[in-house]
Design brief:
The chain is an all-alpha fold. 46% of the residues lie in helices and 0% in strands.
Length: 72
């Protein structure tokens, strides 16, 4: 697939400059992403998400296999 064919599927508004688009360059997009991911707010969010756990004592165990057994 060439660049012109690709642009039929992805609008130029969201393509980086290197691909004939109107968006920032790949380097600028990368730097923006690094800045967001290393922000205090994001780091705190990730720390909070890492604390998330499930309470396995509340899990409902399915008995599908037992109900499906064929009597001989």
């Amino acid at each position: 697939m060439d660049l012109e064919s690709f642009q039929n599927y992805v609008t130029k508004d969201i393509l980086p400059l290197e691909y004939g688009g109107k968006e920032n360059s790949i380097k600028e997009l990368h730097n923006d992403l690094i800045q967001v991911l290393s922000s205090k707010e994001h780091v705190e969010h990730v720390k909070e998400m890492n604390k998330a756990k499930t309470d396995e004592s509340k899990r409902i165990f399915d008995t599908f296999n037992e109900r499906l057994k064929i009597k001989k």
